[in-house]
Design a protein that fits this description.
- The protein has a 7-stranded parallel beta sheet with strand order 3-2-1-4-5-6-7, sandwiched between helices.
- It has a single domain, classed as 3-Layer(aba) Sandwich (Rossmann fold).
- By secondary structure, it is α/β, with parallel strands linked by helices.
- It is built from 5 helices and 7 strands.
- InterPro entries: NAD(P)-bd_dom_sf, SDR_enzymes, SDR_fam.
Length: 216
């Protein structure tokens, strides 16, 4: 499996690289700063610089899978009554627009691979059943990510390229915090299992990390 993962310097992205390398997969990864995990072919990439995405696509070669993992939690002030609107816009740009732009740029690589597929790392905080006012910029960016990737899935379905959203749960990372109930290594292995088994019947779906469907 030839796979590209974004945001691999820490957290879930780093854990997915380690899990992929352990399986003998050819793993490439992007990072804006920090150190890359061992065994990955690393590419410097700022997810806010869309004009560099074509250059990345020219470097990575054919791909079987892309996992769009890189993201930000958003500004410190992001309640509906006190919103950092510039921070909100940046959160949408990085968490929603950048994954779509990068997926578009990498489509030729996926078409050149074997059964190309796209997974986008979303969040349980995107679920519309939550009536919670905290971290609205982050929640909204992930809900919007779900919708744009669902649309991409519809467009790519005739080509046989599945696209799915992943809810990894509450993971013990810098973003999730030490109190989170899920180990990043366990979640990473589940996501890679799901990636390897993803079929066109699941395209456009919102899935738990182990591939079980969940509501939007």
């Amino acid at each position: 499996m030839k796979i590209l993962i974004t945001g691999v310097n820490r957290g879930l992205g780093r854990a997915m690289v380690e899990a992929g390398v352990a399986r003998g997969w050819e793993v490439q990864g992007t990072l804006r700063r920090g150190d890359a995990p061992s065994g990955v072919v690393a590419h410097a990439l700022d997810m806010g610089e869309f004009d560099t995405f074509a250059d990345l696509a020219a470097r990575v070669g054919p791909l079987d899978c892309v996992i769009l993992n890189a993201g930000i939690i958003g500004p410190a002030m992001q309640s509906p009554l006190e919103m950092d609107f510039d921070g909100f816009a940046e959160t949408i740009r990085i968490n929603t627009l950048a994954p779509l732009a990068l997926a578009q740029a990498l489509l030729p690589n996926l078409r050149a691979g074997k059964g190309g597929r796209i997974l986008a790392i979303s969040s349980q905080m995107a679920w519309m059943g939550y009536r919670k006012p905290d971290r609205i910029a982050y929640r909204a960016s992930k809900a919007a990510l779900n919708k744009v990737m669902q649309g991409l899935a519809t467009e790519l379905e005739p080509e046989g390229l599945p696209v799915a959203l992943i809810d990894p749960g509450w993971v013990r990372t810098d973003m999730g915090g030490a109190q989170a109930d899920r180990d990043p290594g366990d979640v990473a292995r589940e996501i890679l299992d799901t990636a390897g088994a993803l079929t066109l019947s699941q395209t456009g779906a919102f899935l738990h990390s182990d591939g079980r469907p969940r509501p939007f």
